[in-house]
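Lytic murein transglycosylase, pasting as requested.
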Amino acid sequence: MSKLRLALLSCAIGCALLAAAPAQAARCGGDFNAFIASMSAEAAQAGVSRDVISEALGGVTPDPAVLAFDRRQRGTFNKTFEQYVATRVGAGRIKSGRAMLQRHASLLSRIERQFGVPPQILVAIWGLESDFGKGDIGKLPVFRVLATMAHDCRRTELFQGELLAALKIVQRGDLTMRDMVGAYAGELGQTQFLPSSYIKYGVDFDGNGHVDLRHSVPDVLASTANLLKTAGWRAGGSYEEGTPNFEAMREWNRALVYRKTIAYFADQLIGQ
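Structure tokens follow.
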């Protein structure tokens, strides 16, 4: 990006932040810089500081690769359960999951007492989403991803909300700007929370004053349990297909094949 364009964009953001009139919903499509200026004004009125907005959105550009991936990935869950689970739950991952159940037994027990979600479900989700925090949790700049998706008119309202939520994560001090890297829809952390879910369900379970879903295993697992509890998880109940707990997992992922894979993996972890 040229210095002139950067200067013009910084000016647009600054002018938007100084505007006294109430911000209206940013319009998708059209000029990207004008869209970012409108989103910046909306964020400022939501209480996000000018410094955070400028650091996050100053100089941001759309990413065509994000849109291309979004259009391709819609067929991800078109496989049968047998086809899908064969690629996600192998002997190595089951062995690692069982080791995680043992390593974090005390933590998982405390979480189950508070939220009612059994350890094997949390470890199954953790393993599927990021290979227990050891795998790829995304390397894309979250603000560029979300700005791109919000500007695209197919789901602009959804991603405008996610963009504002991502700004609030930094504003709250939960993550630094450097940590705001994630996947192709802006998912963050070891169990891949969308920013709005991060704000809504995030739990500071290690007691350090921040919800850190990138580095804190207690926060990661407790927040995942809190999401399921809030979605209607019933302590002590079955989680097989057709049960209320299986339906509670819709808040995690609506794809039937994915929820069946979570349940299958959980059963394998406890030898059922």
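Note for the archive: The chain has two domains: 3-61+140-182, 76-137+191-269.
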